[in-house]
Structures are given as structure tokens and as C-alpha cells.
Design brief:
With 143 residues, this protein is an alpha+beta fold. The chain has five helices and three strands. The model has no long low-confidence stretch (mean pLDDT 81).
Length: 143
């Protein structure tokens, strides 16, 4: 028998969608970069909601990175505002306290993928050679 999709799970999913839009549109602080809301875990009594976010960056980020710390500080300070907006949008009587966390799962999955590839001896399906330019395959066009 399939597991029932509980009310807490539905609230978490809806809260994830609402927070993603609110952070993108309403939080104007420049310290908050491109934030992705990966998961929302709501406690059974709707007291707390743990929001797991990741940041778009060109470098590998950890929880100790200054960009991550700045973004989490801003989001946790804006949690009261975001909580009010989520409550209005979702028409909830009881809105959980919002706690923002950095999602370490992406970095861990990259490490695991790298280890698996090394163990198997698998090469990436698309070779990354910066000298190859797919546009300049035709020498007549380049002239």
C-alpha cells in the first residue's frame, strides 16, 4: 500500500514554492546571491520549518564560505518578514518559525560521483577539452 501524503508534507512543498518566489522577488539585500530553495522540512506540530538552500556560484561552496554565511544571516534576519508573507499567501492559521540552513547534499553528491567514477574508471561522456571549439569545425567559415 502506498504511503499517504501527509498534510505536513503538503505544507512543506507549498512553502518551498512560496519561499522560492518570495526570496527572489522581495529580498533586496545584495548579500543574498542566487538562492535555490532545495527542501523544506516542517515539524509535525507546525512549530518550525527547516529550509535548506543552496547558492549558485562558480566555485565549490561549503557551510563555512563567507558568501554562504552572509546569505544565511540575511535570510534568518528576514525570516519574520518571510513568515508573514508565507502565512498570507498560504492562508495558514499557524505559520512555522523559519530556520534557514545550507544544503550540503549537492557537494556530497559531487564527491560521491567523483569517487564512483574513479573506482569504476569511467570517463565523462563528453570530454572537456578547452581547445576544441565546436563552432570552428568548418575552416571555410572562419576565413
Amino acid at each position: 500500500m502506498a504511503r499517504e501524503y501527509s498534510r505536513v508534507d503538503r505544507i512543506g512543498d507549498q512553502m518551498q514554492r512560496e519561499l522560492a518566489q518570495l526570496i527572489q522577488r522581495e529580498v533586496k539585500d545584495p548579500r543574498v546571491g542566487m538562492v535555490t530553495v532545495n527542501d523544506v522540512k516542517v515539524s509535525r506540530d507546525l512549530g518550525y520549518a527547516d529550509i535548506y538552500v543552496s547558492l549558485l556560484s562558480t566555485e565549490e561552496l561549503t557551510e563555512e564560505s563567507p558568501e554562504v554565511q552572509d546569505s544565511l544571516t540575511v535570510l534568518n534576519k528576514a525570516s519574520g518578514f518571510l513568515r508573514g508573507q508565507v502565512g498570507r499567501a498560504m492562508k495558514l492559521r499557524v505559520v512555522p518559525q523559519l530556520r534557514f540552513h545550507f544544503d550540503k547534499l549537492l557537494g556530497q553528491s559531487r564527491k560521491m560521483d567523483k569517487l564512483i567514477r574513479e573506482a569504476v574508471g569511467d570517463k565523462p561522456s563528453v570530454p572537456r577539452d578547452d581547445n576544441d571549439d565546436p563552432v570552428s569545425d568548418n575552416p571555410e567559415r572562419d576565413a
